Amino acid sequence: MGEMMTYLAASDLCFMGGSLIGNKVGGHNVLEPAALGTACITGPSYFNFTQVVEQMLNAQAIEVVNEEHQLADILEALMQNPKRREALEHSAKQVVKQSQGAINRTLDELTSR
């Protein structure tokens, strides 16, 4: 417990486990690798993080593979194309940055009434 962020920070790429199993697991939190600037790939089962994944998709900050065989292809493509990987990393960091400050905005709203 508590080691995942260290592993993510040391990684060039992250595949979110549980996201190729169907609607049983739903993958894990893609904001963790995004916050660290680690390029992220997920499968189609991300129902428990739909809003975040869709936000990242709109920002071109994540790759989604629909089947297991596509995973090897996208991993290879990202490893062979550092600029594409770096673009994912940069976009992911931007999504996280834009999402920060929710507590302060909520407190400001509550205290301004």
**What are the segments in which pLDDT stays under 50 over at least 5 consecutive residues?**
none
- How far apart are the termini? 41 Å
**What percent of the residues sit in helical stretches (DSSP H or I)?**
40-55%
Compute the CA-based radius of gyration: 15 Å
Q: What does this 3D model show about the protein?
A:
The protein is mainly alpha-helical and 113 residues long. The chain contains 6 helices and 3 strands, in the order H-E-H-E-H-E-H-H-H. A 3-stranded parallel sheet has the order 1-2-3. The model has no long low-confidence stretch (mean pLDDT 91).
Give the structure's gist in a few sentences:
With 113 residues, the protein is mainly α.
Keywords:
single chain, mainly alpha, Rossmann fold, three-stranded parallel beta sheet, EC 2.4.99.12, transferase activity
List the helices and strands and how they pair.
Blueprint: H1 4-9, E1 13-15, H2 31-36, E2 39-42, H3 50-58, E3 63-64, H4 68-80, H5 82-99, H6 102-111
Parallel strand pairs: 1-2, 2-3
EC number: 2.4.99.12
InterPro entries: Glyco_trans_1 (IPR001296), Kdotransferase (IPR039901)
Keywords: Cell membrane, Lipopolysaccharide biosynthesis, Membrane, Transferase
